[in-house]
Amino acid sequence: MSSEWPLRQDPEAPVIIALALVDDPESLGFVVLDDEDDWFISDGTELSEDVVVNRESFAKLSVREAVELLPQLAALAGLPTGMAADWDPERRTWLLSSVTGSDDEEEDRRLLAARVAAWKYEGSPDDEAQISSGLTEIPTGPQQPVRAIRQVVREQDGTWLFVGFEVPEAEDFEVEGLELEHVANLYPDVRSVLKAAPGQVYDRATPDGDWELVEG
User: Is 155 buried (19+), middle (13-18) or exposed (0-12) by CB count in 10 A?
Assistant: First the structure.
């Protein structure tokens, strides 16, 4: 691992980690980055409402210690808050998803209200957007594919579709659902076209090219 600190969090900040991972890092299951920018790292075990069970199953490490134990965490440097990532050990790839809700409904409403108040674009930050599957994956191997959005589609019903350069034109592809704000934070260069009205399509020829309105 590079000597340069890869994450935005303070290396001495605490993380909650499954005790099983301390003994067997290969049993990594998933991570969650909560709305306070704090990490939860698990072998697949969920937090319990039983405090005693949690004490038996989880411990606290520093972020630095967690990265030393699990170097693949460095690939999640740009992960927005409120997101989760499942670990695919065969492909050495993170699979991203949006975390929806918690056990504290009042806190969820407060956080959403703050997000909506800060949102400057069309739609709502918690709208579910469809995004080509390759854009929800972060490989950790030496071969890094281009991860950039080629096309932004605002459907007539107001929903959003984001298509990556990994998708050949005029071919069918699989999509995943992410919250719209998470797409905008993962791929900030789409923010300038989140003004799209229903029925409009924006496209660009290269990952660093200018957006062009091609439909609507």
Answer: middle
Cβ atoms of 173 and 132 closer than 8 Å: yes
97-132 pLDDT, tens digit per residue, is 999 877 778 888 999 999 999 999 999 999 999 999
At 77, list the tokens: 């440097």
- The answer, as to whether pTM is greater than 0.90, is yes
Residue type, 104: D
**29-62 pLDDT per residue, tens:** 999 999 999 999 999 998 878 888 888 899 999 9
Neighbours of 11 (CB within 10 A): 14
CB-based contact 27:21 (threshold 8 Å): yes
DSSP conformation letters of the chain: --SS--SSS-TTSEEEEEHHHHH-GGG--EEEE-TTS-EEEESSPPPPS-HHHHHHHEEEEEHHHHHHH-GGGGGGTTPPTTEEEEEETTTTEEEEEE----S-HHHHHHHHHHHHHH--SSS-TT-EEEEEGGGGEEE-SS------EEEEEE-TTS-EEEEETTSPTT----EEEEEHHHHHHHSGGGGGGTTPPTT-EEE-SSTTSPPEEEE-
> Which residue matches tokens 């065969």?
90
In this structure, which amino acid lies at residue 189? Answer: D
Place of tokens 């071969």: 143
